[in-house]
Amino acid sequence: MTSPLLPTFARAELSFEKGEGPWLYGRDGERYLDFGAGIAVNALGHAHPHLVKALTEQASKIWHSSNLFQIPEGERLAQRLVDSTFADFVFFTNSGAEANEAAIKMARRYHYVNGNPERFHIVTFEGAFHGRTLGTIAAGGQAKYLEGFGPKVQGFDQVPPEDLEALKAVIGPHTAALMIEPIQGEGGVRSVSNAFLRELRALCDSQGLLLIFDEIQTGVGRTGKLFAYEWSGVTPDIMTVAKGIGGGFPLGACLATAEAGKGLTLGTHGTTFGGNPLAMAVGNAVLDVILEPGFLESVERKGLLLKQRLAELKDRHPSVIAEVRGQGLIMGLRTVVPNTDFVSAARDQKLIVIGAGDNVVRLLPPLIITEADLGEAINRLDDACAAIEAKQKTAVPPGAVQ
């Protein structure tokens, strides 16, 4: 059977008809424990009653009015984000890529209004992923995403993470900003040290650059803080958010200080659907839960438990798992076997996990996951590892007579 969809995704032979909390129910009749959360999107799991109520109530009122008019729920969500972060202003989008495009434009425009239009280059870091638009694939700089789409959009330089000297070498009179993910998600759950983030802040301050944090995958409680930058002791000038902020509804945001955002004035940027009433209702509902007293502390506690149990799993299965990475409820297993084999083995155990770069498997459970369900996931990962080991034992060694 052929599909009318463009073949841009390697879709698994699996589809789901409903979800509840951390569980998905497949059309094959099986129940799956979801440790992918729609790639860190379903922060509060599936069919969370507070989100369902907010969406259905708003859907019975008004879906879309456009940004030609005031949207009170958007004003409220923006104020709550400002009150909870470093930011003074928020621009709402529909996706992470759009939020990053807004951040790129904001940084360039900042220097333009300061009388320095030549400062438009943004330095990013090898292994980064910032989206799929022409601008954001250029920002990420990965050849596999750039191939075949014509000349790379100019204005981006890439350097290795944690290499301060390489970074200093590319900064020049054309440089506008530095852009980094505190933890590279697509790049293999590779954490950037807090010390390096502090060095970036000091470098930006001394060179008149803006510091942009891409928290699309790490934000909204994923690491045990509302945003991952809070662990570092420094704040960015601009921050991009998406995925978890909508709890499954398309929503992104670009947050900024008043100084960094001063160039985006009337008519300089816009969006048709960004900040629509449906998205704003759900975004506020997500924050209702995330900001409840004790919620983030519970994420941090469960993250520590998960990391401990994964370390034990690695010790039991050294021929399958090479390294445990991550923080909070964004964890990665760098595997000895191809990560696609591990994803498949986990799915055979009715556990959903997500592949990433550097031969890593991501574990991104919803933040409402219970400790009992964490234990169940470890048992299923254990069984997946055992199945892989059994295949390793029966594999014919190279050069052996068959």
Distance between the termini: 37 Å
Q: Quick one: how many beta strands?
A: 17
| H and E order | EEEHHHEHEHHEHEEEHEEEHHEEHEEEH
CATH top-level class of the largest domain: Alpha Beta
Unreliable stretches covering 5 or more consecutive residues: none
Mean pLDDT: 96
Q: Summarize the amount of helix as a percent range.
A: 25-40%
In DSSP terms, counting alpha (H) and pi (I) runs of 4 or more, how many helices? 12
Main β-sheet description: 7 strands, mixed
CATH superfamily of the largest domain: Type I PLP-dependent aspartate aminotransferase-like (Major domain)
Strand proportion: 15-25%
Structural class: alpha/beta
Count of separate structural domains: 2
Query: What's the overall geometry?
Result: globular
Remind me, CATH topology of the largest domain?
Answer: Aspartate Aminotransferase, domain 2
Enzyme class: transferase
GO biological process, one term: L-arginine biosynthetic process
GO molecular function: identical protein binding; N2-acetyl-L-ornithine:2-oxoglutarate 5-aminotransferase activity; pyridoxal phosphate binding
Family: Belongs to the class-III pyridoxal-phosphate-dependent aminotransferase family. ArgD subfamily.
Q: Can you tell me about this structure?
A:
The protein has twelve helices and 17 strands. It has two domains: 16-34 and 294-393, Aspartate Aminotransferase, domain 1 (Alpha-Beta Complex), CATH 3.90.1150; 49-291, Type I PLP-dependent aspartate aminotransferase-like (Major domain) (Aspartate Aminotransferase, domain 2). By secondary structure, the protein is of the alpha/beta class. The longest helix has 24 residues, at 371-394. 37% of the residues lie in helices and 18% in strands.
